[in-house]
Amino acid sequence: MARLYGFGQLLLASLVAAQQVFLAAEGPTTRPQCRGTKTREPKYSFTPFSFTLTDTVRYATSVPAPTATTTYAAPSEALITLLPSSLSYTTWSKWDPNATAKATDTDNPFGSAAWTALWEHANPPNFTEKALYSTTVSPTPIPSTELVLPPRDYFGPTDCYNFPEDFEFGVASSASQVEGATAEEGKSPSLMDILVQDDRPKAYVTNEFYYYYKQDIERVAAMGVKYFSFSIAWTRILPFALPGTPVNQQGIDHYNDMINFILEKGMVPVATLLHFDTPLQFYGSNLTKAADRPEIGYVNGAYQNETFPDAFVNYAKIVMTHYADRVPIWFTFNEPLLYSTNAKSIDHVIKSHARVFHFYKEELKGTGKISMKFNDNFGVPRDPNSEADVYAANHFNSLQLGPFCDPIFLGKDYPDSFKQTFPDFVPLSKEDLAYIGHTGDFLGIDPYTATVVCPPVPGVQESILDCARNSTSTYRPYCVNQTMVNVYGWDIGYKSFSYVYITPTYLRSYLNYLYNTWRVPVAITEFGFPVFSEAEMALSDQLFDTPRSQYYLSYMSEVLKAIWEDGVEVIAAFAWSGNDNWEFSSYDAHFGIQTVNRTTQQRNYKKSFFDLVDFMKARGVE
Ligand SMILES: *[C@@H]1O[C@H](CO)[C@@H](O)[C@H](O)[C@H]1NC(C)=O
Ligand SMILES: *[C@@H]1O[C@H](CO)[C@@H](O)[C@H](O)[C@H]1NC(C)=O
Ligand SMILES: *[C@@H]1O[C@H](CO)[C@@H](O)[C@H](O)[C@H]1NC(C)=O
Ligand SMILES: *[C@@H]1O[C@H](CO)[C@@H](O)[C@H](O)[C@H]1NC(C)=O
Ligand SMILES: *[C@@H]1O[C@H](CO)[C@@H](O)[C@H](O)[C@H]1NC(C)=O
Ligand SMILES: *[C@@H]1O[C@H](CO)[C@@H](O)[C@H](O)[C@H]1NC(C)=O
Ligand SMILES: *[C@@H]1O[C@H](CO)[C@@H](O)[C@H](O)[C@H]1NC(C)=O
Fold first, then answer.
1. Does ligand 6 lie within 6 Å of residue 483's CB atom?
2. 458 lines ligand 6 (CB under 6 A)
3. Is residue 386 situated within a structural domain?
4. What share of the chain is helix, strand, coil (3-state, %, to 5)?
5. Cβ distance 190 to 116 under 8 Å?
6. Model pLDDT for residues 409-435, shown as the tens digit of each residue
7. Reported pTM
8. CB 491 within 8 A of CB 483
9. Where are the alpha helices (DSSP H) in 324-424?
10. The CATH number of the domain where 117 resides is what?
11. Which phi and psi angles does 17 have, rounded to 5°?
12. Are 452 and 486 in contact (CB under 8 A)?
């Protein structure tokens, strides 16, 4: 999940149609369905009382066992020939900062001593791994008593739409947020192990998914959810990160086992190559730089490092040659905007992505799909009737998605908003655009929320460009004023964090914007809701998470309207997240549809998990 912050005239007409427009109305809410039932004279009478209420007991049904295996590329043994023949495989062990014995292989640049030095250099603050597990836990079946559906909410969707055939429904997570085992089986340090060098909780243990993955997958399978989206940790595959360095055999084996277990359960693996956990090598000797505030995103992901693109492509090739036969859906980057430091970071991201796409389709001859997961807190105009506010919304949205999506989906140059704001951008040549263009099979979006925008000086469109040209303006980089309230001062959605409102009513408009702007199918690659202050609640109250159910059901209802009423091709929805997890500086932002007790590693299904699955299955999703 991301931190929740936040075209031309041609498309304006269709945009306006899908926008929230404020119409004045008088009197209470009308009830058009109630015409003809106006009587106000009830007839009272007595009858003998008895308990006649009945309820049904329903159980979640697990994903059926697989009947056939589909492959999406040649077997790994054949594909490995695409890698340099000099590639070597080795193993390292576990870092113990208290160890007194020192490795003696100091003349080996990739030996144990060199590997240990990576950890000593990272010097992760207060490093300790108080973990329960140090080896893969065997799964146990989920008792049926855990699989009884909760009572239905009184109010709920009453639509009659179904999801299209092959709609992909799943749960999502990322390596650093759930794996733990952070310095084990050869894994080297990443940005996530030092982020941030302050006293906030770290990712050292998290959900112990590295050893507990079978049970977690078993629990999702038991709920009947078919798609399992995870990320691979670069520093587990290549502890020394760079091309020509040895591959970690234990890392390769681990994700092989995990993918095989997902398949064994009848589920479908969905893999992301880089979900924020950049290897530390790209920060050079001064790790303090990792905490520098970027010009664009929120964290310095080091994508701008000159050695990054070749190294990323090398890593991607190694991963894909090992797993592409079994993984049908790939994401190169997760939410790259948020970890982009400057315009060069974006140049590196889109070009690396395109190289990986061409490798996958043309050399590896994979038949699966590739995209990225994008973030963007959809900007809606504060007053849809104000030209300045509509301009501000278009500027805001194009600046977040356009730098990636215009080249990748349209083969089109960067948007003006981007060039105006970052005059040092790397120009894209015709050849670049031909190579980068159409390298996404669909658009992956993590649409957590919407934000109400207007120009920095309300009503004054020019104030946006004045700000874009002003490198010290406080409104940079987006150069709009963002609020959570509509033009009448009301909050626009459901409260989640103290500062963010989740806004299902804008999702449909958002999906229209994405589909009609970039003209490819749209996959919702993350969506989820942190119930306000959930971490402070008793377990029983955490499990009865009605606000999260309302969020999921309302979002999915809007997805159905976008599909059936607007003709928008939405192909997938992956809930963030299968479990509560580490949200970068905290364990208290609960996005999970299961709880995790971090002392016992006990999981519990929340009500929203059942409600969401039931909603999907009732509408034909497998
Ligand atoms: C290292 O030793 C200290 C002091 O005994 C202990 O608190 C810490 O947990 C140990 N670290 C690890 C990773 O075992
Ligand atoms: C390390 O732990 C101590 C004691 O819990 C805490 O005061 C300090 O802030 C922590 N430092 C970091 C960098 O996390
Ligand atoms: C870029 O990454 C390389 C490792 O490939 C590193 O040696 C170098 O110091 C990094 N550059 C900067 C400016 O951090
Ligand atoms: C390391 O980087 C930080 C932040 O960019 C900077 O303030 C500091 O001077 C650098 N230290 C060295 C030794 O270069
Ligand atoms: C740029 O922005 C700063 C900070 O908001 C402001 O003080 C300054 O006047 C602006 N400069 C111009 C040329 O508008
Ligand atoms: C942002 O816009 C709103 C609505 O026009 C206004 O009330 C608020 O003061 C503005 N905020 C800033 C920091 O300018
Ligand atoms: C986690 O489990 C421990 C041991 O059973 C228990 O004491 C603690 O209250 C649990 N935590 C939560 C948040 O339920």
1. yes
2. yes
3. yes
4. 35, 15, 50
5. no
6. 999 999 999 999 999 999 999 999 999
7. 0.95
8. no
9. 343-358, 387-405, 416-421
10. 3.20.20.80
11. -60, -35
12. yes
> Is the omega angle on the peptide bond into residue 189 within 30 degrees of 0, that is, cis?
no
What residues contact 589, with CB distance under 8 A and at least 6 apart? 497, 530, 535, 583
CA 522 to chain centroid: 14
Domain coverage including residue 498: 104-613
Reported as a pLDDT band with limits 50, 70 and 90, residue 498 is low
Start-to-end Cα distance in the chain: 25
| Residue with CA at minimum distance from ligand 1 atom 5 | 98
What residue owns the CA closest to ligand 6's atom 5?
458
For ligand 6, whether the C-beta of 278 sits within 6 Å is no
Tell me the CA distances in angstroms from 445 to 20, 157, 574, one per residue in order: 21, 24, 10
Residue 436 lies in a domain: yes
What is the number of other CB atoms lying within 10 angstroms of the CB of residue 375?
24
CB 314 within 8 A of CB 356: no
CA distances from 79 to 75, 235, 245, 270, 280 (A): 6, 22, 19, 19, 29
Amino acid at position 474, single letter: T
- The continuous run of DSSP H or E covering 248 comes out as strand 247-248
Number of domains the chain is built from = 1
Q: Token pair for residue 249? A: 């055999």
Q: What's the token pair of residue 515?
A: 């589909």
Q: Residue 537: CB partners within 8 Å, gap ≥ 6?
A: none
Phi, then psi, of 444 in degrees rounded to 5: -95, 130
C-alpha 507/C-alpha 559 separation (Å) is 7
Task: Give the residue among 130, 96, 87, 92 at the shortest CA–CA distance from 112.
Answer: 92
185 Rama sector, left if φ>0, alpha if ψ -120 to 50, beta otherwise: left
Which residues are known to be catalytic?
Answer: 335
pLDDT tens digits, 67-86? 998 999 999 999 999 999 99
Is residue 23 a part of any domain in this protein?
no
- CA R_g for the chain: 25
45-75 pLDDT, tens digit each: 999 988 877 778 999 999 999 999 899 999 9
Structural domain includes residue 25: no
Spatial contact of 69 and 99, defined as CB atoms under 8 Å apart? no
Measured in angstroms, how far is the CA atom of residue 281 from the centroid of ligand 3? 6
φ and ψ of 555, to 5 deg: -60, -50
Both structure tokens of 545 = 């998470």
> Which residues in 43-196 belong to E strands, given as ranges?
89-90, 168-172
Beta-sheet pairing, 329-334 with 369-375: parallel
Q: What is the largest CA-CA distance in the chain?
A: 95
Going by alpha carbons, the residue nearest to atom 11 of ligand 5 is 470
Closest ligand (CA of 467):
5
| Among the listed residues 459, 458, 457, 482, the one whose alpha carbon sits nearest the alpha carbon of residue 470 | 457
Contact 174, 275 (CB under 8 A): yes
Atom of ligand 2 nearest to the CA of 125: 13
Q: Cβ of 224: how many Cβ atoms within 10 Å?
A: 20
Contact present, 190 and 235 (Cβ < 8 Å): yes
* More confident site: 342 or 500: 342
